[in-house]
Amino acid sequence: MEIKEEIKQAYISLFPCGELDANSSIDLDERIAELIEKGQYNIHVNLEDVTYISSAGLGVFISHLDILNTHNGKMVLSNLTESVEYAFNLLGLNQLITIAKEGEEIDLYFENE
Amino acid sequence: MKPKILNGIILSIGVLLWFLLLTFHILEQIAAIFPDNAEMMLVGGFRYRLSMVAFLLTFSIYLSRVFSNIEKLQVTTLLWRLFMIGMIGITVIMFITIGNRFTAQMVIYKYLAPVYFGMAFTAMMVFFISAVFIYRRFILYPRTRRKIFGWRVFLIFLAIGLILSLKLEQLDLGVYIFILYIPFAVLTLILSANVRWISYLNFNQKLRALGLFVLIMIVMITYLIAARKLPGILQIDFDEFLYIEFIYFVIAFPIVYTAFSILVLFFNLPTSSIFELKSFEIASFSKINQAIQSNLDFTDILNTLLDASIVAANAKSGWIEMYSEETREQEVKICKKITNAETQEIRSHFNITEKIIQDQKHILIKNIRKHKALRNAQVSFKCILAIPIMSNKETYGVVYVANDLVNSFEDVTIQSLITFAEQAGIALENARLVNNSIELERYQEQLKIAKEVQKELLPHNLPFSEKIEFVAMSETAQEVGGDYFDVVQPKNHLYRVAIGDVSGKGTTAAFYMAETKGIFRALARLDLSVSDFIITANQALSECMQKGFFVTLTYLEINTDKREIQLIRAGHSPSIYFDSKKDEIKELKEGGLGLAIVRNDGFKKFVKPSEKIIYNPGDVLVLYTDGIVEAKNQDNEEYGYGRLKQIVEKNKTASAAEIASGIVNSVKDFTHADLNDDYTVLIIRLR
User: Fold this and answer.
1) Mean of the per-residue pLDDT values for chain B?
2) Which end of chain A is more exposed for a tag (fewer CB within 10 A), N or C?
3) Do B504 and A59 touch (CB under 8 A)?
4) In this complex, do B505 and A58 lie within 8 Å of one another by their Cβ atoms?
5) What's the pLDDT tens digit per position in B569-599?
6) Does a structural domain hold residue B602?
7) One domain, residues B554 and B642
């Protein structure tokens, strides 16, 4: 899967697209792991173009939470489609991961660090 | 009649005729004592000639039959047989000559002389007639209509020769020459030109055949000399025998054919090595082809290829370089008549294999000394040809042939070698595919076992009583899956139920599903509150699951005495509850985080209090996994909660089994295909 990236001052934005299932989510997982290894602990993932997310796809977001927390980092998701948001909420992940409200500036979430 | 018996009879008749002819001679000697009877003219008379014709005919038929059933043309064997027949005859004649000398002074000599002649003459005739019929097999190889016709004409000539000898008066010689001898000579030449069999011999066979033909020729000449030089024994009085044209024919034909064969063989010797090389190429080609069809291992295929390439290219040495899984580099797999050090020397100057894999084209280095990269390589050869071993998918390696002569590989050779390498490439591809499919089969076998084992992990008989009824339907998308459900009944009035889904699919999910079962089975026996169950289960699962994997679970406790349900949802799809009293279907949405997501004490704060329901008879609880609501049809549309609710609504008063199958059938109708996710429905009907 091709993941577009935008490097901002305080964080990096990732733009995965398509379906995040067991196979395609590997790329995203590897990319996030790479960023963390490089010391980039503030990650924004724009899920605008993600039409579907499987349990394995959700696992990608879960697996990096601990390490981000220990480094005082943060993961912010934004622009979730209805079904993707439903999946996050069902699992209770909305309580763990910051999901930006619609139309809000992502920068705000990383400013107070 | 059996051919052997018939042959025996014919031979017996021949022998009888031989004695008859001898009798004529002896009688003539006796008659000579009485001058009055000189008029009888026994020898040379019609009866004598008739007997002679019958004798020659019988022997010809006999020998024709003996040599007619040679199935396979084994040139050297046949020639050797003919030579032996000739040698036996010569030996007989030698003994007769010696006998003749010792008995010449005896009184009975005049009676012995016909015996000597008869034997010598027979030996010579047997040899030449045998030659005619053995050569028939050579001429008719391969059989064609025209050649068979020619041979029949030849036989007619022989018959005419026999019949003509019955005449008493001599015809004019000129007539003979025009009517008989010239046509016969032409026919003999035409038949003698049939030496196709020679082209099928290899060099050694040709050499042996040539030697044997020369020996046979010597035997023939010996007979002819004997016929001239051994008076009284074999000296044929040509004036007397002039009328037996048959004898001339039978002698002339084999001599001409032998002479022809010697010449053709002699001139064919130099070309035979080329022919052999070509036939070797064809043989190698078919050998590699066979390797494609049979399941040979890699080394066998490579050895066949290298051998074939070295011979076809007439090369001094050769080797094959291939990619090695271990060193992750191209390395020499096999080499012939070259040391590994030399191939390394080449590679250190110029990695030909790498270049070929890049370009997928063969490389010919005509002269190493003039090649800019290899100029200083310390190797014993000067010319290298390297050809990729490819199948349509990948390049397996490179076959090298090398020679110590500059520019020693021709275009034709290169073409042959490319074809060999292509064939070997296909063979390797085949071998690889076969190996893969064997491995795959083994995995499938293992998965089948795993599927059986997993089936055992799910309950077969769910509790059923007048107070409560459980029915479940579950299927996995792959052989094994991550869906889990279970019911335990620790007390008569108490049921503990779990339905869960491990993240991901397939084998990993299946292992964690088994772990989930273990944890559920252990904890459900303890008297934990539903919240404590979830907290403990989260702890247990967190300790044994890989990062990023998690379990969603709905856990409930049903007390049939109190008619009370306590349900807690940990990230799992919300259950559906049919309240029969209110005739209302509702979604039990309240819930918290899935298990093994937060793996420390912090989890507690995400645990929501359980949902408490006091139920009435006729209420239904529908538990399911996301495979149901996330099932998609061809338009990529999800089955969804709405449709599920409708089906439950429709079947709300039906039995638990009917509700379960109603849901599954509805999902299957919707998708029109096999589900690509695991799914489970668990229906609890309360009474």
Assistant:
1) 87
2) C
3) yes
4) no
5) 999 999 999 999 999 999 998 888 999 999 9
6) yes
7) yes
